[in-house]
């Protein structure tokens, strides 16, 4: 019997990769988004405002889906508002699906802010020892990931479906217009450096430059999401999800520079955020887009300086343990350098960055 999925946030980096993966595995896929970006071919598009309970219920109640994958959030001015709004989003989706009696499994994608704390207090408190393990539990204080989890747990108890929570590190994947996308941001940055003859400067901290770290390919996350929803060992569990390799940015940064045919500037130990250095980059990108006949002249649809700065500027090592997932039977692996290169190649093929 064909499985039927509803992907919330289908146009994002996670939702897009998941939809492509599920379609290849023979699923029927419905995708809910705000409609700013077209869904991929083969998916059924649904448009609704996730903060509007009535609109969401009207859009999804009669779909009859067996699985729902929640990959969306709405950034607010404070963490208290993040908790309220993003907890509501999860409840607005799960209550009508739960009442239908057809939902078998709900998966929630969060991230490593589960261990690091929210943006407004990012890594400000006592951070658990690395590598982060699921057994380390929650940090003190408000965190919208916890609010989302609580809504998931409550709905699962009330309606009898299983659940899983997935905590990726920074996700590498293809999704133009996505609000948090380091891979595309670095591709745009490197392309501008090459075109303008400027140095490819690492924007982050010495801790990130020298320390061990890892990342998550969107396809790796998609594979774990399906596995958890279709295998008993994955049900009613929270899992970290990364590629399975580790690296140091002092090695990765020159490797990325080599792909683009540019030199990586020596790291001088200073944090040099992209957001402050790239304020005028939009004009340069429009000129580059015109010269190379690129499809997207708006740099804001490809690069998100603040999010990349947040990840690369962390003052501590951030590393994830995958033992729980592996012991449960999920053994997939990705090479992070290959993930970057595959993304860059796709961006070139889609005429989003110069060749």
List the helices and strands and how they pair.
Layout: E1 4-8, H1 13-24, E2 28-33, E3 44-47, H2 53-60, E4 67-70, H3 79-100, E5 105-109, H4 113-116, H5 144-159, E6 162-168, E7 171-172, H6 182-196, H7 206-210, E8 212-213, E9 216-217, H8 218-230, E10 237-241, E11 247-248, H9 249-260, H10 274-277, H11 281-292, H12 305-312, H13 323-328, H14 336-349
Parallel strand pairs: 1-2, 1-4, 2-3, 4-5, 5-6, 6-10, 7-9
Antiparallel strand pairs: 8-11
Helix pairs in contact: 1-8, 2-3, 3-5, 6-11
Task: Describe the model.
The protein is about 45% helix and about 10% strand. The strands form three sheets. It has a seven-stranded parallel beta sheet, with helices on both faces. The protein has a two-stranded parallel ribbon with strand order 7-9. The chain has two domains: about 5-170, Rossmann fold (3-Layer(aba) Sandwich), CATH 3.40.50; about 175-215 and about 245-315 and about 335-350, no CATH class. It is an alpha/beta fold. The chain has 14 helices and eleven strands. Helix 1 (about 15-25) crosses helix 8. The protein is globular, with a radius of gyration of 20 Å. This is Nucleoside-diphosphate-sugar epimerase. Pfam families: PRISE (PF22917). InterPro entries: NAD(P)-bd_dom_sf, PRISE-like_Rossmann-fold.
């Amino acid at each position: 019997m064909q499985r039927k999925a509803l992907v919330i946030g289908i146009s994002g980096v996670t939702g897009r990769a998941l939809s492509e993966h599920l379609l290849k595995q023979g699923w029927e896929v419905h995708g809910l988004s705000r409609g700013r970006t077209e869904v991929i071919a083969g998916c059924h598009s649904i448009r609704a405002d996730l903060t509007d309970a009535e609109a969401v219920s009207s859009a999804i109640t009669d779909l009859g889906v067996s699985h729902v994958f929640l990959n969306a959030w709405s950034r607010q001015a404070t963490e208290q508002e993040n908790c309220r709004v993003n907890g509501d989003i999860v409840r607005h989706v799960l209550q009508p699906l739960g009442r239908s009696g057809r939902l078998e499994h709900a998966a929630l994608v969060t991230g490593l802010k589960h261990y690091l704390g929210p943006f407004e207090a990012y890594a400000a408190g006592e951070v658990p020892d690395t590598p982060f393990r699921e057994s380390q539990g929650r940090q003190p204080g408000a965190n919208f990931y916890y609010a989302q989890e609580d809504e998931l747990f409550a709905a699962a108890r009330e309606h009898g479906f299983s659940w899983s929570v997935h905590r990726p590190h920074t996700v590498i994947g293809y999704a133009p217009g996505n609000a948090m996308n380091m891979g595309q941001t670095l591709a745009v940055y490197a392309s501008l450096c090459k075109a303008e003859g400027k140095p490819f400067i690492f924007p982050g901290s010495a801790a990130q430059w020298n320390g061990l770290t890892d990342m998550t390919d969107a396809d790796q996350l998609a594979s774990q999401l399906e596995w958890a929803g279709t295998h008993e060992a994955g049900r009613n569990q929270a899992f970290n999800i990364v590629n399975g390799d580790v690296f140091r940015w002092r090695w990765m940064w020159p490797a990325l520079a080599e792909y683009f045919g540019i030199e990586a500037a020596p790291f001088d130990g200073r944090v040099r955020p992209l957001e402050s250095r790239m304020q005028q980059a939009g004009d340069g990108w429009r000129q580059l887009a015109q010269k190379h006949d690129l499809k997207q002249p708006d740099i804001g649809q490809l690069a998100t300086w603040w999010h990349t700065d947040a990840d690369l500027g962390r003052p501590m090592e951030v590393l994830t343990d995958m033992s729980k997932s592996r012991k449960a039977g999920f053994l997939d692996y990705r090479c992070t350098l290959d993930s970057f290169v595959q993304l860059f190649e796709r961006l070139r093929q889609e005429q989003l960055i110069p060749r």
